[in-house]
Amino acid sequence: MSEIQLPASTAQKNRQLLATFLRSRRENLDPIRLGMPHHRPRRTPGLRREEVAQLADVGVTWYTWLEQGREINVSAKTLSAIATALQCNEAETQHLFQLAGHASPASVAAKTCATVSAHGQILLDSLNPLPAIIQSLHFDIIGYNPAWCRLMNVELETIPQSDRNCILLAFTHPQWRAAIADQDVLMPHMVALFRTQMADHLDDPRWQVLLERLMAESEEFRDLWPRYEIRAIDNQVKRFYHPRTGMMTLRQNNWWSAPRNGDRLLVYIPNDEESAAALRSITD
């Protein structure tokens, strides 16, 4: 886990914010719920510093210095132990790492690869027969409706969840790829989107993992990557091919989720009457 180099003024400010965050978390924990002994009365709510140090297996003096915002080195392993001791959730753990100048831990990154929520699936199902998916920041398919599977002519249930990534499937899955028309335009476009998204989140190790996999499994991706093209996500018209109906032209519409974690809803609407009729024939 690499440490992020910050300007001196920013690092000092972050140390003070880190100290404030640690004190706030400690003071909001219930020592009884955590099974801590209560041999003497507590003057302040929450855990004592020595109790956090004990739970995290660090020195009391060292932890006190950390809460005081002193300039000390903190390893990613120690930060993870402190986050566990303070009962931090995923967002709080990421915040803790950012303030300490570390990239987000891989364990947190892995946990965020979640499935669609119940409300998200209701939304997807209500949009049927319009093809729709919910996609993560990393282009992972979190949720989908039956119309999307009909459009791509692929049953996503048969694909391992770890492989349900729109860019990965576009470059490595023959049947998925067959549904994509205008590949000479769309494939470079996907690579440019990938590069843009990755550049905005260099502290997230999942991007490098996905990049290495694409480079290893797709010669076409390897050829396109050096172009260094940059593209933003936008609504666009796409053409799809289905063996039963031929070509369809649909407009991709994007909506982002409220938590601002990068998840977005993609809904595909027919762009003309012929495409609407073709879509109905495969989704009815």
UniProtKB/TrEMBL annotation:
Any one Gene Ontology molecular-function term assigned to this protein's record: DNA binding
Domain HTH cro/C1-type positions: 21-93
Gene3D superfamilies: 3.30.450.180, lambda repressor-like DNA-binding domains (1.10.260.40)
InterPro entries: Cro/C1-type_HTH, Lambda_DNA-bd_dom_sf, MLTR_LBD
Leader peptide range in chain numbering: none
CDD domains reported in the protein's UniProt record: HTH_XRE
Protein name according to UniProt: Transcriptional regulator
Organism: Pantoea coffeiphila
